[in-house]
Amino acid sequence: MKLQRKNRRALALGALAVSGALALTACGSDDTGGAGNGDASSSTAAGNIDCGDAKGQLQASGSSAQKNAIDAWVKQYTAACKDVQINYNPTGSGAGITAFTQGQTAFAGSDSALKPEEIEASKKVCTDGQAIDLPMVGGPIAVGYNVPGVDTLALDAATLAQIFDNKITNWNDEAIKKLNPDAKLPDLKIQAFHRSDESGTTDNFTKYLKAAAPKDWKYEPGKSWEAEGGQSAQGSSGVAQQVKQTEGAISYFELSYAKDGIKTVDIKTEAAEPVKATVENATAAIGAAKIVGTGKDLALELDYTPSAEGAYPMVMVTYEIVCDKGNKADTLPATKSFLNYVASEDGQGLLADAGYAPMPQEIITKVRETVSGLS
């Protein structure tokens, strides 16, 4: 750090205050989500941010799956744009969209694209416009488990569906044994946890179960959990914590929450080998997604039943929800500035280290064009 600071003293006086603050930010990193890890690249990324006329407070809420990504982005952005304070509340996708359509937030995060009724509701707060979906961050939905003595576990969609529908209730069940012939599966009750709040992660997880195991998953996909039985917890952090502390537990959450020793399931697909939940395997799957939104809306259609080797089937994309036109005048400059950074090469570059998948180039290019035209 001393060498970096010495070099910075050679910069022009007008840039000195900013670079010094960025140096302190890089050195004081708490390493949340993998950004700001104290290297020179973090400082450089923050230095490339265009604050424009951004100032004041930005209130936002929604997807808890992207919270670690938001934390990483906010850390870098506010180091450069000191007149902006961003408060992101990870209330879940459903609550985030509701808060946005009620005019309480500048933008929302959702792991599911807007429904027609939500777009209609947004027209009350988007003057002469409507809410649109901007895909900003992706990644695999990991299935975490806590089974003592089992370091590697493979499951398929049918078995997962039966576990989360309370049809398979013990870890030494024959269906699990068949998929894991070399594992020493204990005589231990399965403790399946799902989200208690409305969640885009739940929506994507149940879309996968419905698409890949329709005979075993009779429920319609959605943000709210429909199956009976099991236990619940609030947010991605809540279910991840339950897995960590409960023997026999299993749940689903964004890969960035699979830390502190939480093991994740390899998913058996039509491919020859079970697929691990990795950023690389998710990025490949997102690259095959189709843009199905109309106008400036960039909603994507994902494939939950891939057969290619290394294609992870449970992929999620988190959208930032904003008005295409009619954003509030007092928050528009900060909203555009922040989202411009999030969609930039530097912003997307933070994601892999934080356990997320950046958007493919052809998608993020369209996102950048759309953000620049927000009004």
TrEMBL record:
Keywords: Phosphate transport, Signal, Transport. Residues 1-23 form the signal peptide. GO terms for molecular function: phosphate ion binding. It comes from the Bacteria. InterPro entries: ABC_phos-bd_PstS, PBP_domain, Phosphate-bind_PstS. The keyword Transport applies. GO terms for biological process: phosphate ion transmembrane transport. Pfam families: PBP_like_2. PROSITE patterns: PROKAR_LIPOPROTEIN. The keyword Oxidoreductase does not apply. SUPFAM superfamilies: Periplasmic binding protein-like II (SSF53850). GO terms for cellular component: ATP-binding cassette (ABC) transporter complex. CDD domains: PBP2_PstS. Phosphate binds at residues 63-65, 93, 111, 199-201. Residues 54-345 form the PBP domain. Gene3D superfamilies: Periplasmic binding protein-like II. PANTHER family: PHOSPHATE-BINDING PROTEIN PSTS. Belongs to the PstS family. This is Phosphate-binding protein. It comes from Streptomyces viridosporus (strain ATCC 14672 / DSM 40746 / JCM 4963 / KCTC 9882 / NRRL B-12104 / FH 1290) (Streptomyces ghanaensis). The lineage of its organism: Bacteria, Bacillati, Actinomycetota, Actinomycetes, Kitasatosporales.
